[in-house]
């Protein structure tokens, strides 16, 4: 009986440990659909990101985009778009811990909910309008 209890306890600990490192259950399509249908979900994800000092948007040097779009099990869920020409191709969801291990955030642009931006991409995402651009004077 004691051995059975030890085995059960070991299995329970293993299951809980494995669950805590698992990724989000929500699929990419479900996440972006829910976020588009209810903007409060994105706002709540941004608020949680602010509380945990996490970025809301990450743009990697490999041109992968991660956006905080939801919450699951008390964690911010990020949509990951690997192909901007077809956002449904090879896209998925992650928690921040998995994003840290999968992507080089030290070579990424990080946008925080308070407006702070950390750009470690050597200006990859900076853009500037050409001074010769005509017609934009009316919009300034």
Structural account:
It contains four helices and six strands; from the N terminus they run αααββββαββ. The model has no long low-confidence stretch (mean pLDDT 85). It is of the alpha+beta class and 140 residues long. Helix 2 crosses helix 3. The chain has a six-stranded antiparallel sheet. The chain has helices at 2-20, 28-37, 39-51, 96-102; strands at residues 57-60, 65-72, 75-81, 92-95, 108-111, 117-119. It is globular, with a radius of gyration of 20 Å. Helix content is 35%, strand content 21%. The termini are far apart. The chain has a domain at 24-116.
Question: What are the SSEs and their pairings?
Answer:
Layout: H1 2-20, H2 28-37, H3 39-51, E1 57-60, E2 65-72, E3 75-81, E4 92-95, H4 96-102, E5 108-111, E6 117-119
Antiparallel strand pairs: 1-2, 1-5, 2-3, 3-4, 5-6
Please name the defining characteristics of this protein.
single chain, 140 residues, alpha+beta, six-stranded antiparallel β-sheet, 6 strands, 35% helix
Short structural description:
By secondary structure, the protein is of the alpha+beta class. It has four helices and six strands.
């Amino acid at each position: 009986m004691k051995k059975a209890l030890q085995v059960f306890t070991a299995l329970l600990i293993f299951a809980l440990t494995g669950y805590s490192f698992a990724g989000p259950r929500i699929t990419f399509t479900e996440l972006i659909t829910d976020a588009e249908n209810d903007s409060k979900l994105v706002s709540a994800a941004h608020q949680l990101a602010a509380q945990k000092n996490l970025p809301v948007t990450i743009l990697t040097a490999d041109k992968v985009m991660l956006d905080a779009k939801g919450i699951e099990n008390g964690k911010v869920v990020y949509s990951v778009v690997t192909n901007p020409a077809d956002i449904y191709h090879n896209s998925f969801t992650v928690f921040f811990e998995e994003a840290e291990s999968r992507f080089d955030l030290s070579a990424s642009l990080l946008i925080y909910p308070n407006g702070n931006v950390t750009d470690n991409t050597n200006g990859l995402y900076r853009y500037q309008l050409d001074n010769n651009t005509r017609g934009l004077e009316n919009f300034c």
